[in-house]
Specification:
about 400 residues, alpha+beta, Adenine-n6-DNA-methyltransferase TaqI, Chain A, domain 2, 6-stranded mixed sheet, 4-stranded antiparallel sheet, 8 helices, 18 strands, elongated
Length: about 400
């Protein structure tokens, strides 16, 4: 760490929950808690709603969840969806951090808030009843940090930002590919556009178990290994790691219970499953490319029908029959053609997801080293664009 870094309290280098004014009933942009992605700087969207309460913020502010499990799940983002001088609002469960002009860089402040030197003591400060614990804001305000000069802050933010920019680009490409695949599905299987809007008489109605072997895992959720080599799919939003595997190859993964019941994803490789998570893999006598088109069909129809569960109230869940007997309109030559079109879309999405995993791992490795001054950024040129794939 250079000698020109200074020790300070967080409240002295950032405005925390700065006062802003919105009139009751005023239409404004709202960022709901469930609209934030885990460990993602970018805010994917917003709602237009009447303001009736909540935290208020401006562009450039960092918003951090203060309630469990949202903070632990990485609900922290930098606001960039507002116009100049526009005020937005969101959940009362946000803490808002604002950079101080000529003292802190807003991008650096975001990375500081996401670093372990802020996150870990914030999580440890939580108080309240089980499941509704909240960060003590006063504890966060008084955290001691080492703050580099403004130019060094900007260089650190530039290095980390280049990685996040590439991650965001990959996510954008994936969203576009998903939309293209969904448009193909809708044209052929919902609107029947090539056939004048009516399903041809020679199409069959089949069920998913005529295409796929469907099974659940045998593992408990706590059998994960953070040093494992393979993906371990539970009913949570993010896969864990494990050393064992139940299948190696393309598969459609469906969450079977809990808050994410019905959530569907595609994976190709070695993986294991939680006992309430389902996998669909191609039967031996079926065209192996069908699994790609089936994924798009399941994601657009079955997932929407069973999202949130078809059974249970306190803990929603689905059963094997909900998946196995899902009906699919089928015509062999159409399936053959569309599967070959959809396959490269899905493979590119998987390729980008793998690259993002590596970029996230690199970013998370660099973050504490940059924030502590262990890595020297004096050679970084703020004016030059960093190509993140070369980092």
């Amino acid at each position: 760490m250079a000698s020109n870094w200074k020790e300070a309290k967080l409240k002295d280098v950032a405005l925390i929950n700065p006062a802003e004014s919105l009139k009751k009933g005023q239409l404004s942009k709202k960022i709901p808690m469930d609209g934030l992605l885990p460990f993602c700087k970018k805010i994917p969207g917003y709602l237009i709603e009447k303001y009736n309460g909540g935290t208020k913020f401006r562009n450039g502010d960092t918003i951090m969840a203060r309630i469990t499990p949202c903070l632990e799940n990485g609900k922290t983002a930098k606001v960039d969806i507002l116009d100049n001088d526009e005020i937005g609002f969101g959940s009362t469960e946000y803490i808002v951090f604002r950079a101080i002009e000529n003292e802190t860089d807003s991008d650096y402040l975001y990375y500081l808030i996401t670093s372990s030197q802020i996150r870990e003591p914030a999580i440890k400060s939580m108080v309240g009843s089980s499941g509704r614990q909240r960060v003590q804001t006063d504890v966060v305000k008084d955290l001691n940090i080492m703050l580099p000069p403004l130019e060094t802050q900007q260089k650190i933010a530039k290095v980390l930002g280049a990685l996040d920019d590439k991650i965001e680009l990959n996510n954008s490409i994936n969203n576009n590919l998903e939309q293209q695949a969904q448009a193909i599905f809708k044209s052929w299987f919902v609107d029947f556009e090539p056939f004048g809007g009516t399903m041809p008489d020679d199409w069959e109605i089949k069920t998913l178990d005529e295409f796929c072997n469907i099974f659940t895992g045998r593992k408990n959720a706590n059998e994960n290994d953070e040093n494992g080599k393979n993906k371990f799919f539970t009913c949570g939003p993010k896969p864990l790691l494990i050393n064992s595997y139940i299948h190696d190859g393309p598969a459609i993964i469906i969450a079977g219970n809990g808050a994410y019941t019905g959530r569907t994803r595609f994976y190709d490789g070695k993986f294991d499953l939680y006992q309430r998570t389902y996998a669909c893999i191609s039967l031996e006598n079926i065209n192996k490319d069908y699994i790609y088109l089936l994924y798009i069909i399941i994601k657009n129809v079955l997932q929407k029908n069973i999202m949130g569960g078809t059974h249970g109230s306190a803990v929603p869940y689905i059963v094997m029959n909900d998946i196995a007997k899902f009906e699919i309109t089928f015509k062999k030559d159409i399936f053959d053609n569309l599967s070959s079109i959809i396959k490269p879309f899905i493979n590119k999405i998987l390729e980008n997801e793998i690259e993002n995993e590596h970029l996230i791992q690199l970013r998370d490795t660099l973050l504490p080293k940059l924030m502590s001054g262990e890595i020297d950024v004096s050679g970084v040129n703020i004016e030059e664009k960093i190509i993140s794939t070369q980092l």
